[in-house]
Amino acid sequence: xxxxxxxxxxxxxxxxxxxxxxxxxxxxxxxxxxxxxxxxxxxxxxxxxxxxxxxxxxxxxxxxxxxxxxxxxxxxxxxxxxxxxxxxxxxxxxxxxxxxxxxxxxxxxxxxxxxxxxxxxxxxxxxxxxx
Length: 131
Prior knowledge:
This is DUF742 domain-containing protein. The chain is mainly alpha-helical. The protein contains five helices and three strands. The protein has one domain (12-96, 113-130). Helix 3 packs across helix 4. It is globular. The two termini are 18 Å apart.
């Protein structure tokens, strides 16, 4: 038999409770590489997943890292993050945004500013292999 997979094989009732019965976040503010930064400390009575996220995000942390550390599916983490964003407890930083005007390029060529950093890609690959 195969080992249980974290998040995927969790009790569905627990995931239902964590999300308040929702199956997706009500906004599209998050993708896998969105960096999350907490704006406050956890408060007493706060759901444990929200409190853990606030503690983990004292420094910018990617959504995919949160999912792995919390051992929850990304879709569930996005719902919890959406709740935190709505209450102003976190901010979301999108690393792809740039204020510089796009440089002219040849047809079919990807601008260097839009290419991911190879170091980050290597770290993601290592993380995926460890799953």
